Amino acid sequence: xxxxxxxxxxxxxxxxxxxxxxxxxxxxxxxxxxxxxxxxxxxxxxxxxxxxxxxxxxxxxxxxxxxxxxxxxxxxxxxxxxxxxxxxxxxxxxxxxxxxxxxxxxxxxxxxxxxxx
Length: 117
Known about the structure:
Oligomer: single chain
Largest sheet: none
């Protein structure tokens, strides 16, 4: 089991693979856009937002085989699942979701809320 979690690693991986609905290639391309870089909270003294850093980490995780995943990878997967679930529950803005900071932020975390809609 992952540290501090009642979920087993297999379940964490399944949840992660469910909420991260962008491929590594799509996410890499997205992270290079102005829209991606325009959203999110940046820690003091850093240049890159937390979400943007997460996106890069997600790409690394998605490219690993299950046997290569570390405890830190599973901890990050749990963080991604929590972030996406919380922000999806907000439902986004009432107006244009396609061009919203809400969507852009979720996409930095590997989740396009408009995919499949």
